[in-house]
């Protein structure tokens, strides 16, 4: 039965779909087609206000797509008729000569003298009617999205008079979301009902409803309500709603924390390799991230028409640019400083200054903004109080993917095996025929390349400037130290934990103090567990 | 005097101290006595610049004491330096009195601007010079003591400690940028009028400040020399080279580290306090990790583990900085970066290492 129904429904829709196509191809036909609209319009031209009032209703219920525009124009005083011709037009512009367009066809009819047209006048009664009808037009729009918007727009301005309209709409409405919004609207009206059982029922229906107006309406009810039972129930409902809002607030905070954490993980994971696996402090790591971000910027400048493709292309490109720079640094500087970590720290810091100044010279010290492709912008509205931005979700997923990729590379590939071998026991690995120097260079290149990829992700969240890397280097070190050197899992858990902790401290203390609190916490944490969360043996660890 | 005995063994130190003494005496004479236009006249601007270098040299001594002799690479000495500077700045701020833009006799301008009603508790007492000087010593010392007590007791060493010290100064940088902290936010403290009743604009006051910096540097040098040549100093070097062995012999390594680190912080704080009246401003940028790491490069350039090397390095690098930032502003960071790389790769003993024979560094 249901199957039959839906099939029939489908046929009907298909039929109308074809019809609308056919109509679109023949605009003149469409104008003549809707007899109700033309009837309404002919009524409107009559001078009499009562006839006009009727006309408004006829036009509004005609279901014609042009109806809204006509009524809006009437309300704004832009609807005119050409004298002695009975053709309705929209007036545009001011002065003695005005441009007019036809109401029925939308064609421009050129400019005429202002004296040649006459305004369709309205009075306050018609104005009131127009407001009501305009709201209703969207409520009957075939697009469920527009209907939903119309209902949501209606909710804060509800009056008991709307109750009847809502009932009729509810009977025909098929879309679940719109139905839900309509029910909310009905319940809000029910709260103002004079009969007690109706108000109680409305309260029942509003349990856990997150629409902002519901909360306000309940607060209003609490101040005005005399009846004890209803008062208590309203209080309970309000408490329920508020705890639900709190819960979603918590979820949102958690999400922001995870998002910040994923950025930290991306920034720190390359460092975890260079610092953890080969025991080298790379102070230029932040600048390798910056290089990745600038690579994204350059590729986007090269192909401004395909921003999405450019972004995808810049992932491997940034890996190569930063990775190659990393290998260059390793071969020319770091290789001579193995076993002297403090000197390595100073030398790489010098390199970071040089890289920063190079970028500043080439690209100017000003920030560059990298555009976000359409599929990464916007947000995911889960309910009225919780929405998650798509770019942050993407970066969270991306960070996990990079982590997984890196983890698999180290665990499953032969180069990963060599890297781990050289990290655990360098002389033994060499004795087994592993070229330790080559492994060092490759590890460093891998860590640096990951930094470049982190730069691609960061370019989607912040502006790209020469100081981009500097602001992340201390945080990344904190993550690595906190998570435990030489342990990728530690970096993941450490980064996400620090991100979430940061976001949870923020409301109490403000963003800057939250950062300071976290830094102090890590300093104290290191006192207790110098090896971090997950200690592991390695050249730098143990 | 034991110190004099030590000084006789330290030829580079004697030369450096001699030069400092010469500067301290000659520059004021050339500034005040020699008329303008004469070749030997030293302008007040040059003298102030030299005074700034002397403060930096004292700071470099502090860094060298912990890095060169104790093996602790501190990337956070800027924090101690700035705290000393802020203590001095607060005294100078209180000296302005009702001469500020808003004319409030008690509150500094920025507090009036922020609509504060009364002086915060931590600004009390700074109207007295002796109290401010006490704070110049106590505040950095206390921070170093607390930080060191935690860090050394749990045996955080090497690069971990370096990163921790960097995080320390970074946290302070963020904190001092906040207006609510009550230290003038990112503008810091400035517009000073006078010190101990003497106008800061007067040449005579500037000469006095210059002499004070020279004397402080000389005293700082002598005290560092005394420490490094004493039994305690030999223990420090031992800790630098073989920490575990010293511990196993039965010495309390963490206590030695803690006291030397704290003393070094005091030196840095004094350097900061002398620096502020020279330049006339103290703001949170002095806390930046870059500033702190620059101090390390002064020592590296001059020659680590030689006290006179630190002095020479600080003056050389800063002279190059003053010159380059004016002549070629873009080139300075390239030069500084190259300096880091080249010194660590090619000149591990610094420039003084070039002229130094293969002596055994104590």
Model description:
The complex is a heterodimer of chains A (about 550) and B (about 350). Chain A is an alpha+beta fold and about 550 residues long. Chain A contains 22 helices and 7 strands. Chain A has 3 domains: about 20-125, no CATH class; about 145-225, no CATH class; about 260-370 and about 385-530, no CATH class. The longest helix of chain A is centred in the middle third of the chain and has 50 residues, at about 230-275. In chain A, a hairpin with a 5-residue loop joins strand 3 (about 95-100) and strand 4 (about 110-115). With about 350 residues, chain B is mainly alpha-helical. Chain B has one domain (about 1-355). In chain B, about 70% of the residues lie in helices and about 0% in strands. Chain B has helices at about 1-10, 10-30, 45-65, 75-95, 110-115, 130-155, 160-175, 205-230, 230-240, 245-250, 255-280, 290-300, 305-325, 330-345, 350-355, and strands at about 190, 195, 200, 280. Chain B is globular. The mean pLDDT of chain B is about 90. The interface between A and B is large, with 40 and 41 residues.
Helix/strand class of chain A: alpha+beta
Strand neighbour order, sheet with most strands of chain B: 1-4
Hey, which two chains have the biggest interface? Answer: A-B, 40 and 41 residues
Largest sheet of chain A, in brief, is:
5 strands, antiparallel
How many individual domains of chain A? 3
As a percent range, the share of strand residues of chain A is 5-15%
Regarding quaternary structure, what we see is: heterodimer
> How many structural domains does the protein architecture of chain B include?
1
Order of helices and strands of chain B: HHHHHHHEEEHHHHEHHHH
Percent helix of chain B, as a range, is 55-70%
* Lateral arrangement of strands in the main beta sheet of chain A: 4-3-2-1-5
Q: Helices and strands of chain A, in N-to-C order? A: HHHHHEEEEEHHHHHHHHHHEEHHHHHHH
Rg result of chain B:
21 Å
Q: Mean pLDDT of chain B, nearest integer?
A: 90
